[in-house]
Amino acid sequence: MISFKDVYCTFEDRGGIKEANFTINAGDFVFLTGPSGAGKSTLLRLMYMDVVPDKGEVVFQQYSSRNISRHDLPYLRRKVGMLFQDFRLLPDRNVYQNVALGLYAANYKAANIRDRVEEMLEKLDVADKWYHKPHELSGGEKQRVALARALAIEPRVLLADEPTGNLDPRVSIELVKLLYQINQSGTSVIMATHDYDIINRVPKYRLFQISKSKIVSAT
After folding, report:
1. Tens digits of per-residue pLDDT, 86-101?
2. Cα angle value 46/87/116 (rounded, 5°)
């Protein structure tokens, strides 16, 4: 599904990633681990082509970082769900509106959007929060709403950037177990984390360890 071929992507502050070579297959659950600033977020940004390499090539299915056009980027990103540490919910919109926005952006038919949002909120056990604004939700509820938004577009892969960073340990474990269930239903999951305690909560996974912008170990 995703491959990196001798990828370098660096920034003025010397962060980024260097010498990345790997393949992620459909159905994989991958943890990206390492200290803050190691390059985990850069790897995720490269996967959905928010940035492109200075050298080398990133391939996501039929799309290549060497020749992808602005026209093709939205089609690639419809295959990708994103989950962030800070939730990124719009504070002036309620739960329904936050989840529905992603579907409108993905050009879902308006007649189908309400049913799809309702399905996802029920699946993630936040259907009773339909009209709540983000400030009325707990951290775990916010992340479940953010996950509903990410999954509503039926992505092939879910990219999660430190999604447990603002959650307490119990809720973090619940979220990781939920991500594993999603993975078992067929969605690839790639999760950046520096919390090694939650990794063993997943029965089967691959582990990429990153240090100083390089992948130093991959299983």
Report:
1. 999 999 999 999 999 9
2. 90
Proportion of the chain in helix, strand, coil states, percent, rounded to 5: 35, 25, 35
Q: Residue 102: pLDDT above 90?
A: no
Query: How many Cβ atoms from other residues are within 10 Å of residue 62's Cβ?
Result: 9
Q: How far apart are CA 117 and CA 121, in angstroms?
A: 6
- Amino acid in the structure at residue 212: K
CA distance 216 to 219: 11
Has domain 1-79+189-219 been given CATH number 3.90.1150.10? no
Full-model pTM:
0.93
Of 4, 41, 74, 76, nearest to 163 (Cα)?
Answer: 41
pLDDT tens-digit profile of 36-85? 889 999 999 999 999 999 999 999 999 999 999 999 999 999 999 999 99
In this predicted structure, what is the pLDDT of residue 200? 87
Cα 33 to Cα 119, 122, 149, 190, distances in angstroms: 32, 31, 25, 11
210 CB-near residues (< 8 Å, 6+ apart): 17, 32, 33, 34, 38, 39, 40, 43, 216
Task: Give me the residue label for tokens 């067929």.
Answer: 186
Question: Which helix H or strand E contains 193, and what residues bound it?
Answer: strand 188-193
Token representation of residue 96: 């329904």
> Amino acid identity, residue 25?
N
pLDDT in tens, 165-216: 889 999 999 999 999 999 999 999 999 998 888 998 899 999 999 999 999 9
CA 42, 192, 25, 27 torsion-angle sign: negative
